[in-house]
Amino acid sequence: LKRVVILGSTGSIGRSAVEIIDSASDDFDVVGLSCGENIVELERQLARYSDSRFTVKDSSLLSKLLLGNDVLKGREVGYGRDGLVALIEETEPDIVVNALVGVVGLVPTVTALSRGCRVALANKETLVTGGEIIDAMAGDPGDLIIPVDSEHFSLSRCLKGYRGNSDEIVLTASGGPFYDREIDSLESVSVEEVLDHPTWTMGRKVTVDSAHLFNKGLEVIEAYWLFKFPYDKIKVVIHPQSIVHSLVRLKDGSFMANLAAADMRLPIMSALYAPEIREFPWRSLRVDELTSLEFIPLEPKRFPAFELAVEAGETGGTAPAVLNAADELAVDAFLAGRIGFLEIVKWIEEALNAHRPEPVEDVADVLDADRWTREYLADRHGEASPM
Ligand SMILES: NC(=O)c1ccc[n+]([C@@H]2O[C@H](COP(=O)([O-])OP(=O)(O)OC[C@H]3O[C@@H](n4cnc5c(N)ncnc54)[C@H](OP(=O)(O)O)[C@@H]3O)[C@@H](O)[C@H]2O)c1
What we know:
Elements: E1 2-7, H1 12-22, E2 28-34, H2 39-48, E3 53-56, H3 59-66, E4 76-79, H4 80-91, E5 95-98, H5 106-114, E6 118-121, H6 125-138, E7 145-147, H7 150-159, E8 166-173, H8 191-195, H9 204-211, H10 214-227, E9 234-238, E10 244-250, E11 255-259, H11 265-273, E12 296-297, H12 304-315, H13 319-335, H14 341-354, H15 363-381
Parallel strand pairs: 1-2, 1-5, 2-3, 3-4, 5-6, 6-7, 8-9
Antiparallel strand pairs: 8-10, 9-12, 10-11
Helix pairs in contact: 4-5, 5-6, 6-10, 6-13, 9-13, 10-12, 12-14, 13-14, 13-15
The protein binds NADP nicotinamide-adenine-dinucleotide phosphate (NAP).
C-alpha cells in the first residue's frame, strides 16, 4: 500500500484523486486529507478514510468541524500553512498529491521534497512562484515531482527518451470560451460566462485564468522549470478540441504528440502509479473522435494576460510571485462581483509595473513578494485577500 496525502482533497483535482483511490483501495492508504473551507465534504472523506489525519484552512473552521464530533478529535494536525506542513511531517507519506490552488501550495511542496517524498503536482503555483527553489530540490520530472497538469503530464510522456533530441515543446490551449472574440467585447462578461469552460470542468480560479489564457502563461512558466527549454522554445497553439495535450518537435523536424480524452483522472491516476502505466477504468479516447483536430496559431497581442505571464516568467526572480499574487487577488475580486473581467489584467499589470524584481533564494523571498503585492493592491483598491 502506498501512503498518500491529498492536499486540497475537497477541490476538483482533490476529489478526482479521492475517486481514483476509492476505486483502487488495495493499492493506496489515505493517511492525510485537507480542505480550505468545505468542511462538509472533508468530513465525508474522513468518514471513509477513518485512519486519515487532517487539516483545514483556519482555526474557526477547525473548531466548527470538531464541535461535538468526537470521532475526529485527535486526528487533526492543526490548521493553515503550519497544518499543511504538519500533515506531511506527521503522516510520512510515500506520495503527496498537491491539489491546492494558489501560492499556499508552495511550502507543503517544499516540505514534501525536503523529506524525499514524491509529489504529484497539480498546484502549478508551486513552480510559477518558487521554480528556482523546487528546481534545486526535485531533479528531473518523474523523479520527485510528477506533473499532473494535463499538458505537462503529456509532455513528460512525449519527452521520455527524446529529451536530448528535441528542440521545441508545444502546449495546447483550448482557448476557453472567448478565444475567437475581440478583447473589447469582453468588458462586461458575467462570472457565469467566464466560468462556462467549453472542454474542462475545473475549480473556479483556474477556470477564470483559462478564459483569458493567463493560465496558459502560468503553464509556460511551469514547463520552463520542469523541462528546461528556453522560453522561446516553448510554444502555445490553440486547439479547441482539447484532445492533443502537447507536442514535442524533434531535431529532425518531426513531431511527437500525446492525445487523450479531456479527463484529469488520467494524469492524476498516472501520477499515483508512476512510472507504471495502468488500465484507465473510465472513458478512453476513441479513434473516431479524431476526425477534426484544429490547431490555430496564438496571437499573443490578443491575450495580454498570457503575454504578461510569460514576460514575468522571463524576468524571473520575484516577478512571477507578484504576477501570481496579483492574479489571485484580482480573480477573487472578480468572482465576488467587485471588478469586471478586463480589470484582472489591469491589476496584474499595475503590480508588476510597481515591483522591482529581486532574486529568489528561498521561500521567504517568494512569500515577501506575495505579501508586498497583496498590500500594494489592497492600498490601491481596498480589501486585502489573505493568502
Ligand atoms: N481542475 C483542473 O482540472 C486542473 C487541471 C490542471 C491543473 N490544475 C491546478 O490544480 C490546482 C487545483 O485546482 P482545482 O481546480 O482542483 O482547484 P479547486 O477546485 O479550487 O480546489 C482547490 C483546493 O484547495 C483548497 N484550498 C483553497 N485555498 C486554500 C487555503 N488557503 N488553504 C488550504 N486549502 C485551500 C480548497 O479547499 P475548499 O474547496 O475546501 O475551500 C480545495 O480543496 C490549481 O493549481 C490548478 O491550476 C487544475
